[in-house]
UniProtKB/TrEMBL annotation:
Residues 112-132 are annotated as: Disordered. Residues 1-109 form the HotDog ACOT-type domain. Residues 113-132 have a biased composition (Basic and acidic residues). Keywords: Hydrolase. GO terms for cellular component: cytosol. Signal peptide: none annotated. This is Acyl-CoA thioesterase. InterPro entries: Cytosol_ACT, HOTDOG_ACOT, HotDog_dom_sf, Thioestr_dom. The keyword Hydrolase applies. Pfam families: 4HBT. CDD domains: BFIT_BACH. GO terms for biological process: acyl-CoA metabolic process; fatty acid catabolic process.
Length: 132
């Protein structure tokens, strides 16, 4: 899993208890996973179909830098399933894990699913070409 981007936890990201609001982290996960999937498929006409198991493991607080690790889990004909791990940059503790995030490639005009044209093997080769 590659950790590709980071965010700073700001005051407006906090809940009443002073820790990172769960809804905010889910918003970030959806956005980061979309960017990752769009880059993997070289396509921007994707929609989020499903987000599976979500596990909150520890809290983040104002001033913490969180980083997003993403990886391809499964490649379908019209879909791509990714996993996202959010961790504290400094401590490396997992904050949240979102598994089975499914994106579907759609035709922009008809809004119906269409094949994205990538295979698991092509995405595996892409991983080998990308430096850690």
């Amino acid at each position: 899993m590659r950790f590709l981007s980071r965010r700073l936890v700001m005051p407006n990201d906090l809940n009443f208890a002073g820790s990172l609001f769960g809804g905010r982290i889910l918003e970030w996960i959806d956005e980061e996973a979309y960017i990752y999937a769009a880059c993997q498929l070289d396509a921007k006409s994707l929609v989020t179909k499903h987000i599976g198991a979500i596990s909150f493991e520890t809290s983040a607080y104002q001033g913490d830098v969180v980083e997003f690790g993403l990886g391809v889990k499964k490649v379908g004909r019209t879909s791509l399933t990714v996993t996202c791990v959010v961790r504290n940059k400094q401590t490396k503790q997992n904050i949240c894990v979102a598994d089975d995030i499914v994106f579907v490639h759609i035709d922009p005009a008809t809004r119906t699913p269409e094949p994205h044209g990538k295979t698991q093997a092509e995405l595996e080769d892409l991983k080998l070409e990308t430096p850690e």
